[in-house]
Amino acid sequence: MQRSKKILIVSHCILNQNTVIEEEARAEGAVQSAVEWAMKEGFGFLQLPCPEFTFLGLNRPPMTYEEYDIPEYRRHCREILTPVIQQAEEYVKNGYQMEELLGIQSSPSCDPSRGVFMEELYGMLADKGITLKKLRYLPNTSNPIFNSEVHSMMKN
User: Fold this and answer.
1) Pick from 114, 126, 36: nearest CA to 81
2) Which residues lie below 8 Å from residue 27, measured CB to CB, with a gap of 6+?
3) 1, 7, 19, 48: most buried, per Cβ within 10 A?
4) Which of 84, 66, 154 is nearest to 121 (CA)?
């Protein structure tokens, strides 16, 4: 079978809601509407690690962007992103398309327009000459349904 060579960078919790703090979980496992869309589009997944889970553990308190916007957390984000960036480079070097990202609206870490983790990811991708053209997000609702026509923005 021919590969699509299309890779979607995806926030960890879209594929695994088990890492989300309990009061914010939106699905039993993966967010089905987002996964089904990506599969129909022929995307392979480059799943990001969950920075909040790896920094503070599963039983962490809810926190804001400002609370995560500290040097120790940003350093942690860059450390756990290093293998992801290496994978992205390998894909690009071999002709794969690494142009889109799917994050979580209103997440202090993984909101594509304002998340501490995403800011570090964008900087590290830019350092390697990898440009994302489209940012997508899972809406911040109790039962999110991903709609690719509505839940996307161009990367500035």
Assistant:
1) 126
2) 17
3) 48
4) 84
Residues paired with residue 27 on neighbouring β-strands, in sequence order: none
Confidence of residue 25 (pLDDT cuts 50, 70, 90): confident
Q: How far apart are CA 39 and CA 17, in angstroms?
A: 18
**Distance in angstroms (rounded) separating the CA atoms of residues 124 and 71:** 16
With a threshold of 0.85, does the pTM exceed it?
yes
The pair of three-digit structure tokens given for residue 80, joined into one six-digit string: 């756990």
The strands making up 6-10's β-sheet, listed across from edge to edge, are 43-47, 6-10, 97-104, 134-138, 152-154
Closest Cα partner for 101 from 83, 93, 90, 113?
Answer: 113
Q: What is the mean pLDDT of residues 108-112?
A: 97
Q: Which helix (H) or strand (E) holds 82?
A: helix 71-93
- pLDDT at position 104 is 94
Provide the residue type at 114 as one letter.
Answer: R
